[in-house]
Amino acid sequence: MLENWLSRHRNRTSLLLHIVGIPATIAAVVLAAVQLLNGQWHLWWRPTALLLGGYALQFLGHAIEGNDPGELCLLKRLLGKPYRPFADRPAVLPKGKKRPAEDDRRN
Predict the structure, then answer these.
(1) Band (26; pLDDT cuts 50, 70, 90)
(2) How far apart are CA 60 and CA 15, in angstroms?
(3) pTM for this one?
(4) How far apart are CA 88 and CA 5, in angstroms?
(5) Mean pLDDT across the chain, nearest whole number?
(6) Distance CA 10, CA 15 (A)
(7) What is the per-residue pLDDT across 58-103, written as a single tens digit (0 to 9) for each?
(8) What local confidence, expressed as pLDDT, does residue 58 receive?
(9) CA-to-CA distance for 92 and 68, rounded, in angstroms?
(10) Which DSSP letter does residue 43 get?
(11) DSSP classification of residue 28
């Protein structure tokens, strides 16, 4: 499972955004539960901001990566729509390698 996840998050910036975004979304759920148990309904905006911010970072990472987020892949698959679980191009090229020209990639 981890290997599959890492293969979908090869870009360093995307990985960094996920390293911040995933804990933020988890913290949002925990914070919401604690606040609800303590009757702190008026602080609803804190877990909401964490959840939205965490997901925004992850979606930005996938935009940089060039693939669909896992949740979107699942939704599109359920609806029978095409989805992009992996980017078409490598996120990081080995040192000294250049991206081929557009015409070279077609051959």
Answers:
(1) very high
(2) 11
(3) 0.72
(4) 16
(5) 84
(6) 7
(7) 999 999 988 888 888 889 989 998 888 887 755 455 556 555 554 4
(8) 93
(9) 18
(10) G
(11) H
**What are 14's two structure tokens?**
């995307």
Largest interatomic CA distance in the chain: 63
Which of 82, 52, 58 lies closest to 70 in space, CA to CA? 58
Which pair of tokens denotes residue 66? 């060039």
Closest by CA position to 54, among listed 18, 98, 86, 90:
18
pLDDT confidence of residue 73: 87
User: Which residues 6+ apart lie within 8 Å of 89 measured at CB?
Assistant: 66, 99
Domain boundaries along the sequence of the chain: 2-84
DSSP string for residues in 33-96: HHHHHTT-GGGTHHHHHHHHHHHHHHHHHHHHHTS--HHHHHHHHHHT----SS-SS-SSPPTT
Residue 92 one-letter amino acid: V
Percentages helix, strand, coil for the chain, rounded to the nearest 5?
65, 0, 35
DSSP output for 13-24: HHHHHHHHHHHH
Q: Tell me which amino acid residue 88 is.
A: D
